Amino acid sequence: MTGLEGLEAYVRTYVAETKSALHEPYLFEAMRRIVPMLLKARAEERTIFFFGNGGSAATASHFVADIGKATIRGDGKRFRCVALPDNVPTLTAWANDADYSKVFSEQLKGLAKAGDVALGISGSGNSPNVLEAMRVARALGLGTVGLTGMGGGKLKELVDVPLVVPSNSMQHIEDVHLLVCHLLTAYLRDEQPSADR
Fold it and tell me: Cα separation of 109 and 32, whole Å?
């Protein structure tokens, strides 16, 4: 007896549920709106700010590593990307001295300019610091994108482009968010120069 009798069935179910979360038109519809925003940001040398908590913070950092490095064009054009969870001293200072709900919004107030893009990630769509950052982003004139799940939560109503994974499982939602990171990176690496126009 190994204790792994149900492992194969569990793996098959998990994979099937993740695939199911991808077989919906929402993914293409959201990508069709997100890609032009990011291409415009690159063309105009705007900054794209990524943020989230926990696993979503890791996805935000992953986005910046991939899009910032893997999409450099032959003409030298790059995406200007910042992961707001990565500055731990700044994040903890705002959390300690003000409130954790302000850790991203206060950074945006100091760094962002109209025309930049804010991409917030929240599996539930209800993370207070992501919501507050989006309110500030809108007030500052940023384009806004929200990656979420569980019906979209409050985030869905605060962003220009919501990508709502049709699942209530945080694991499957985060799986799809990471796939979106890689899908965007691959497309932005491979797209033709005319797409910048």
Answer: 29
Say if pTM beats, i.e. exceeds, 0.90: yes
Name which of 43, 50, 61, 9 is nearest 191 in CA terms: 43
* Exposure on the CB side of residue 29, measured as CA atoms within 13 A: 11
Task: Tell me if residue 45 falls in helix, strand or coil.
Answer: coil
| Any domain includes 18 | no
Q: Residue 61: give its domain's CATH number.
A: 3.40.50.10490
pLDDT at 43 (0 to 100):
94
pLDDT for 84-122, tens place per residue?
Answer: 999 999 999 999 999 999 999 999 999 999 999 999 999
User: Domain of 147?
Assistant: 25-192
Q: Kindly state whether residue 115 falls inside one of the protein's structural domains.
A: yes
Q: What is the mean pLDDT of the chain?
A: 94
Give the chain's length.
Answer: 197
As a whole number of angstroms, the distance between CA 52 and CA 77 comes to 26
Q: How many Cα neighbours within 13 Å face the side chain of 32? A: 5
In this structure, how many other beta carbons lie within 10 angstroms of the beta carbon of residue 1? 4
Number of domains forming the structure of the chain: 1
Residue 13 lies in a domain: no
